């Protein structure tokens, strides 16, 4: 197929997608979508670009909520007043939903926050963290009420119940129930054996559903923990779950890019489709009164599909992310950039919605000085000058050791030749004209 024919085919596909009732793409983030939520016709998206986007129908670009200093992993609406987010900077933030203003920063965790949830009455929020703790916070004041401690590994997800309890899921393979009033663990509801990533609760129907690292997707009776259904397929890990508001349907997203839609009346699979051409489905939410599914993954865009009408519609990653480029098509140095740098950085001048600053004009530049980017305190005023030697040490030692306290996530390039090839590529690609 020639280039013009391929372009025509893509345009035809997108035209058909645009005509599909309810299908849309939310474009604007500068990094993968890690969390999504929906309420009253408004959608929230949490991204690797350190920001939360608030989208209202087709009313143009989103309102950006920006105060996190690392990837935002979870976002929820709490009543009609608040948006709450949590992320890799170990911080949860309570936002004024209407004004878009920061109200409280919750800063007591010692590791990334994977999930934030609001109590049924909206008075409290809970935060699940990789420091093995669950924080219970007062929404009005932002003050910590208490810690729930007992998990032996990272806590990944949480859910409130209406009787003053909280349920948590952890990498230690357990699902636990806690009494919020005094922080006492009241029971271990499940011992899955593999880490549990996500859970859903429906008190009225007396069930709890969860998804795990090994692909386990199971439903328990909430009252006594007995297994109701096993929905496990040969796909792993399970990363996201969403419950339709009426409780009649759930959606399950996995690491292989599929979304499974299940009817809860008899726990049968109603629809199962490949939502992402490449990569995981990290985030799911029902929208449009339960007729649409909002999903986020490794792409910068979030997608909304009409439930059960996905076969002819585009998938996330149809226009693949550049770090999936065939190594045979690029040099080793460019491949290192695509894999290690491209999610957070561009090579072009000017600002972007990426998590990191542009690398344009990198060599000879003082660290922490690219215009328009908000740096961490660790790099503001730094004496470091970006040279070939500095870039080599950054990826040899890792940013945690070479630029401690900076926003750059921990990563290394072990082979000296790979580092040399990356530096050679960047010397050319970032050179100011």
Describe what this molecule looks like in 3D.
With 433 residues, this protein is mainly β. It has helices at residues 3-19, 332-340, 388-397, 399-402, 416-429; strands at 24-26, 33-39, 42-47, 52-56, 63-65, 72-78, 82-87, 92-96, 102-106, 113-118, 124-129, 133-138, 144-149, 155-160, 165-170, 174-179, 184-191, 196-202, 207-212, 217-221, 227-230, 238-243, 249-254, 258-263, 268-274, 281-287, 292-297, 302-306. The strands form seven sheets. Strands 1-28-27-26 form a four-stranded antiparallel β-sheet, with no helix packed on it. Helix 2 (332-340) packs across helix 5 and helix 3 (388-397) crosses helix 5.
What is the topology?
Blueprint: H1 3-19, E1 24-26, E2 33-39, E3 42-47, E4 52-56, E5 63-65, E6 72-78, E7 82-87, E8 92-96, E9 102-106, E10 113-118, E11 124-129, E12 133-138, E13 144-149, E14 155-160, E15 165-170, E16 174-179, E17 184-191, E18 196-202, E19 207-212, E20 217-221, E21 227-230, E22 238-243, E23 249-254, E24 258-263, E25 268-274, E26 281-287, E27 292-297, E28 302-306, H2 332-340, H3 388-397, H4 399-402, H5 416-429
Antiparallel strand pairs: 1-28, 2-3, 3-4, 4-5, 6-7, 7-8, 8-9, 10-11, 11-12, 12-13, 14-15, 15-16, 16-17, 18-19, 19-20, 20-21, 22-23, 23-24, 24-25, 26-27, 27-28
Helix pairs in contact: 2-5, 3-5
